[in-house]
Amino acid sequence: MEILIYGAVTSAIYALLAVGFTLIFGVARILNLAHGSFYALGAYGTYVLTSIAGLPLWTAALVSIGFVAVFGVVVEKVLIRPLRHSQLGVLMISLAVALVVEQTLFLVFGSEYRNVPSFVDTKINLGGVDVAGQRLLTLAVAAVAIGALYLFIQFTRLGSAILAISQDPEAAKYMGIPSDKIFSLVMAISAALAALAGVMAGPFLSVQPSMHLLPIVKAFAIVVVGGLGSIPGSIAAAFLLGYAETCVAYLISSSWTEIVSVLATLLMLVFRPAGIFGKRAAF
Amino acid sequence: MSYSTNFRSLRRLATASALLGALLGVLASPQALAQAANTKPIRIGVPTSVQLQVGRDTLTAVKMAVDDINKKGGVLGRKFEFVAADETENPETGISAIKKLTADEKVDLLIGGYTSGVTLAQLPHISAAKTIYLGVGAASPSITAKVKQDYDNYKYIFRVGPINAAHQARSLVDYIANFVIGELGYKNIAIVGENAKWVQDLVPVLAKGAKDVGAEVKLTELFDTQTSDFSPLLAKVKSSGAQYMIVVLSHASSDVFAKQWHDAQVPVPYGGIDVKSMDGDFYSRIGGKAISEVAANFAVRAPLTKKTIPFFDEFKKNSANYPVYTAFFAYDSVYIYAEAVKRAGSFDTDKVIKELEKTKFEGVGGEIVFDEMHDVQTGKGKMNLIFAQWQDKGERAVLYPKELRTGTFILPPWMKK
Amino acid sequence: MKAFRGLDQFSVTGGLAALAVLGFLPTLFPGKYLIGVLTVAAIYGIWSVSWDFMSGLTGRENFGHSLFIGVGAYTAGFLNVQFGWGPWWSLPASMVIAALFGLVLGFPTLRLRGPYFALAMLSAAVIMQRLMLIFWEFTGGEEGIQDITPLIKDPLHYYWFVLALLGGITWFLAWMARSRWGLILRAIRGDEATCLAAGLPITTYKIASLIISAAFAGLGGALYAHYQLQVSPQLFAVVTSITIITMVYVGGMGTIFGPVGGALLLTLMTEGLRNFGEWRLMIYSLLLIFILFFLPNGIVAPTWNRLRHLFSQERP
């Protein structure tokens, strides 16, 4: 029973991360290794705004997410776009950005864990399992956010534009869709989702400068397994991986959980690079 | 290009050698020699985790001791000076820190240490540099075991605090026997620790000792130091039927552990060795979620010796917080080295080592006497482990040993009837 | 001479002179500290050169080079400490084991295009690091293996030994790069489809170059183990791979000798920056960004080439 609930919470966080990652890849063919940094900045932003600026939690969270979204757009425009001709170049520079962010956080805040207050401080008992309220809230928020994104893409003009570019960038340009503006928008959404994950998970997971590493490894794993560029694929893979990890943690030992995602990545890349739902056109 | 540089440098070298020869001739007279030696300061190298509280407090303590001794005229006419090197928690950086201190900064003495794995990696390099090392933070017994195994190469190593993991295990067993079982009546315990060398050394001794005093160890689990999600672990502890959780933590995220334990309202109180919870601001920085945790400390602001309270107060003036364990030992280390040098009448490493071995010094936490492995002895009047609990408003009450008790045990708020 | 085929006089004399200067440096500025730094720099040079041979020439960037380094180092550790073999066995053993890993990993991953090979190797390195931690009873976990015996006790002599190996390996790989082998590797970077059409067994060449790259990286790992006298999972870290890639970028991708200069430059810079302590990695990352944008051909190689032109103009 615990596995069911904890697995769901873990999967929800992973889904938030993965969807953002696959979105920017599907649309702009950018493998953004700085995605984890958005997650970290979301959590740190909330920490700074609540403990130093003294803002109330909800406000701090929203401001933090907004800031990260803007940051993502700036990074894309200034650093990534000039190197878009080389996928490896983009990889290297996004990695460099991630390292710079980590070092900045380290220099400013030190390597010790920081505390982000929880949104909900109660304990809820679900089917005999004690769960912290914050975790369930995370699950709910993630579901709402992804649902909203899905509706946005399916039912608005902007959403259709995004779909168009991801399917065929050339044709979309001929149709007059401003791809550069769309890239910025998608980057903002991607960064915002990652920051949201950071804000929600910060209270109960650790907040320290190297916290961007694991999320990016997981996000990449999920997206590869689910198929790069496919949102439903990412969500499905997020749950697959989230539950796989939780099962391993409960039944074997927590030390093995990290290997699950990385091994999944490696095996998928070797045997079926397109992933479960992906199109071969992914590369 | 390279050739002309080489030649020029050769000429420079020749001139330098000539000057050096002349200088040495002047200094050859014993008077002059003593004069030159007198003005050179004694350099202390401090390899520690500068980023963490344990490191910062080590440096503050060394500074306090150095300032105090220098004010009183130094040792044998020479004053102290110290330089730090960050060893982080990583063996490679640690080795590089030792190399920097011994080869580059040419220190006379090393005081520091925290992570056992790092210290173990540094030992061969410290031995090669023939420099005395006074350890104040690392707990693995393997460190001092080397002193006995290979005295000639490793006689330089001393440990100035009762942190030897085996000693700590025995103290924990006493705590379990006399307090957890004796006073609280909990026989079923769970042992949870981080998967680091010192814990790997400590847990077997602890588990056996606990069984010997009548406890039933329902669960023993070592988790990866990087773990950030403890919910599977806490759930396992709860379902194991344990009534009390003994923790052995140092590098792991104690903050997150406490928060998750509190948020899930796990009906199992916990206590044990938790280095991060020794920090003065541990309680407040996690919003009070450490309430009812019992943590081992090596000294608290209580009259353990006549130096304890003055040290605590003086420390608070120099830093924003009360000291953690490395501070007491680092402070005492400087003094015992100074005393050993005075007794030896020289700074010669081998002579000082012989005097260090004869140390009988009243430190901040108790009397310091070394055993044959250069470890501090424990026992009545000597240095010991003290168990204190986090209570309301961040107050800490000493619960064990009974003679030093200042408060009564409280249960976590969700377990109060 | 056939050995120096394709290399002009400047490169040969310049290279030998540089080697001599490096060898004499510790005698001019005596002190264990400098020797230590230079030894580490030379080992990074070996790692960078081995990376460049495969990834620089073929354009298939290997983000998991640290795996081969770690494997070589741990092989040395195991043989020396666990099995009690003499330290000199580590050298051939580490090369063999690392080469084996290169073979096993190369097979499935080298057919991946684009950044996928890079990321697959990265994943492999992360898995190895994790495995070292999980099986801590055998591998020593986070603290790794200690008490490795040094190969040559005197630090100066060990430095010269490592330097000699660096020189030898660089010469060998540069020779390979100028031979038909290097030509094919460069052709692969250009256009794989054409190579296939021409009937070249490109997969064999790709895997073979990875094996060679891995073997030398492993050797470097063993040399490092006998210098540090300990090995830890940190060797497998992503940071190590990124550091080496940065060194290659600074040196000049695909030039073979450039990365050696890059390694020396960056190692010395890192030690020089020690006083900045925490700022070190930050400066590294910023440097990487700077180079990616403004100096995609690196610093060392273009400078060397410019010097070469200067000298060739001087000759009547």
Which H/E pattern describes the elements of chain A? HHHHEEHHHHHHH
The total count of helices of chain A amounts to 11
- Strand proportion of chain A: under 5%
How many separate structural domains of chain A?
A: 1
Give the strand tally of chain A: 2
- Write the H/E string of chain B, N to C: HHEHEHEHEHHEHEHEHEHEHEHHHEEEE
Estimate what percentage of residues of chain B fall within beta strands: 15-25%
Biggest interface between chains: A-C, 33 and 32 residues
Structural class of chain A: mainly alpha
- Look at the structure and give the mean pLDDT of chain A: 81
What coarse outline of chain B follows from CA principal-axis ratios? Answer: globular
Low-pLDDT ranges of chain B: 1-7, 12-36
Annotation field: number of helices of chain B: 15
- Please compute the radius of gyration of chain A using only Cα atoms: 18 Å
Rg from Cα of chain B: 24 Å
**Helical coverage of chain B, percent range:** 40-55%
Biggest sheet layout of chain B: 7 strands, mixed
Fraction in helix of chain A: over 70%
Silhouette of chain A: globular
How would the blueprint of this fold be written?
The complex is a heterotrimer of chains A (283), B (417) and C (316).
Chain A: H1 2-28, H2 35-52, H3 57-80, H4 87-109, E1 123-126, E2 129-132, H5 133-155, H6 157-167, H7 169-174, H8 179-201, H9 213-226, H10 231-251, H11 257-271
Helix pairs in contact in A: 1-5, 1-8, 1-9, 1-10, 2-3, 2-4, 2-8, 2-9, 3-8, 5-6, 5-8, 9-10, 9-11, 10-11
Chain B: H1 2-27, H2 30-39, E1 42-48, H3 53-71, E2 80-86, H4 91-104, E3 109-112, H5 116-128, E4 132-135, H6 141-149, H7 151-154, E5 157-159, H8 165-181, E6 188-194, H9 197-212, E7 216-223, H10 231-239, E8 244-249, H11 254-263, E9 270-274, H12 282-285, E10 294-297, H13 308-318, H14 325-344, H15 349-357, E11 360-362, E12 367-369, E13 386-390, E14 396-400
Parallel strand pairs in B: 1-2, 1-3, 3-4, 4-5, 6-7, 6-8, 8-9, 9-10
Antiparallel strand pairs in B: 10-13, 11-12, 13-14
Helix pairs in contact in B: 3-14, 4-5, 8-9, 14-15
Chain C: H1 9-28, H2 32-58, H3 65-82, H4 90-109, H5 115-134, H6 136-139, E1 145-146, H7 155-178, H8 180-190, H9 192-197, H10 202-228, E2 230-231, H11 238-251, H12 257-272, H13 279-294, H14 300-314
Helix pairs in contact in C: 1-7, 2-7, 2-10, 2-11, 2-12, 3-4, 3-5, 3-10, 4-10, 8-10, 11-12, 11-13
